[in-house]
Structure formats: structure tokens, C-alpha cells
Amino acid sequence: MFCPNCGANVQDGAMFCAGCGKPLGQAVCSNCGAQIKPGVNFCPGCGKSVKGQEQSVSAPMPPPPPTGGIASDMKDVQPGEVVLMDTGHFPISYVKNMMTSTNGKLYLTNQRLVFKAGKLQGIGGVATGGLFIPNPKDAGKSKEHFAILLSQITSVESGWANITVQADQKYKFGGMTKTREWAEAINRARGQG
Fold it and tell me: What's the CATH fold of domain 83-189?
């Protein structure tokens, strides 16, 4: 599905466009009032052909969250800044070098790319069964937190489960899903897409 306002690719069922923040109204069948997804030929509610039928658009969804973008847990949003994407509940890793990485969350705003270490990211702990269990005394000691201004990013590459961002240095984020969408969103936000 694409946003009728800015043309951004929008996830099916989304209430707001991740590209411009506009509410996405749904077309409804003039016969029964059921919601109709773009591109369908028959109403899912009554089976009537909707091709060529004038469809009304339902009332816009409620106003967007105060940030103007997606609902996010990012607390240090600057005035005029909109959170466009975040990596969700599962942590990703910021790979500092071959031997060091930090688990956390990645946010894309209309001004910067922000990484924050997870609350349970510890310095010491026990590795068991492929999982790292931080020592409770050390939990939260890793305060890895940085932001890269979009204007400083020179390139973005997506891999199978990672993205690499080139700015003042190379930043690699791993353990990710939708890497191609992330690279495209970063390039769009910095005016390169």
C-alpha cells in the first residue's frame, strides 16, 4: 500500500504514513460500508463489484501521537523532530569491532539516526546456551548512546541482517530485520531516496 499524500510504501493496516505522518483513511463500500483495500475489485463485505464504483473515504483516523510520527519510546525527541522508524521490542546490536558489540535499539527520525543501549546490557555476566545473561549488579552500566545527524551520513548499505552507515566513521548494526526498508527509509529521510 502506498501513501496517497507522499507516495511512501506503507505497511498494510497502518493508521499513519511513516513518511509524512498523514492519517490514512480507508475506502468504504457504498453498498454495505465495509472497508476496501486499494486494488480490490469486489467488496469483502457484500461481494458487490467496486470497480468503477465511487467509494467514500472513512473519517480520518485519530490524530497522530505528539511526536507526529510512529508511537515510540524515544524520550529525547527534539522540537520539530519526528520518529519515523524504530527497531521495536527485540534488541539489535551495534557492532563496534569483531570482538565487541552492544545490544540496544535503533531509531530513525527526520533529523538523525539514534542508537541507545538496552537497559539490561551489562558489562559482566554469564554466557550460557548462546545467550548472554548480564550480572544484575552490572545491568545498565553500558550507557552506549549516540546520534548521527542525517546530514553527516554519506552512504547506507543493507546486508542480510545488518545495515552499515558511513558518516564520520563506519557504524554497523546487526541482528536486524527489514534491512532494505531501513536503508531506503534512511536515504529518503536524508533526501537521497
Answer: PH-domain like (2.30.29)
C-alpha cell at 162: 545488518
Q: Distance between CA atoms of 156 and 138, rounded to whole angstroms? A: 33
pTM, to two decimals? 0.53
* Cβ proximity of 77 and 67 under 8 Å: yes
Contact 8, 19 (CB under 8 A): yes
CA distance 61 to 89: 25
Q: Residue 97 has which C-alpha cell? A: 569491532
- The three cell numbers locating residue 44: 469483502
Q: What angle do CA 6, 37, 40 make, to 5 degrees?
A: 115
The pLDDT tens digits of the residues spanning 135-170 come to 555 555 556 678 899 999 999 999 999 999 999 999
